[in-house]
Amino acid sequence: MTLVLGIGNRFRRDDGVGPAVADRLAALGIPAQEHSGEGAGLIEAWRGQARVVVVDATQSGAESGTVVRLDAVGAAPPRGLFRYSSHLFGLAEAVETARALGHLPERLVIWGIEGADFGFGDALTPAVAEAADLVAQRIAAELTAPPS
Q: Label partner for 1 (CA 20 to 30 A): which of 76, 109, 120, 145?
């Protein structure tokens, strides 16, 4: 079984891309959960899981809608790539803390989608909405592909 987490705040425009991808996956029949992205909660959520997929907004200065896919078991996620909200212990810090404690899942894939607008509102910008569709399709394809 794979745990899929969509991180973000639905009411901060593009920061809601993780939950939006979770919604798209659920519509395809793939269980996915929404998560705030608070680091300790992430570590607890993926404890004991063999395979975890996480989707979160990035804020790196790249073009809006840019998609990155990271193998977080193989290498640390770049610090500062993922948006912080009210907590400073977010996704990248959770990965490295879990690694140090021996609590990383066997497989941890992080999908990042570059946001443009993190102000108040519940609609994704067009480029981010398009990227959310693409990422949901890619995740669905990976999760339903026969084992290699």
A: 76
Residue 81 makes CB contacts below 8 A (sequence gap 6+) with 58, 59, 60, 68, 92, 112
How wide is the angle at C-alpha 91 spanned by C-alphas 86 and 97, nearest 5°? 110
Residues 21 and 129: their CA atoms lie apart, in Å, by 9
Of 66 and 87, more confident: 66
pLDDT at res. 76? 77
- For 57-103, give the DSSP string: EE-SSSPTT-EEEEETTTSPPPTTSBPP-S-SS-HHHHHHHHHHHT-
**Cα torsion 80, 18, 87, 65: sign:** positive
Quick check: 8 and 18 in contact, CB under 8 A?
Answer: yes
Pair 110, 91: CB distance under 8 Å: yes
Give me the numbers of helices (H) and strands (E) for the chain, helices first please. 4, 5
Question: Of the candidates 72, 9, 1, which has an alpha carbon nearest to the alpha carbon of residue 38?
Answer: 9
State pLDDT tens for residues 12-53.
999 999 999 999 999 999 999 999 888 889 999 998 899 999
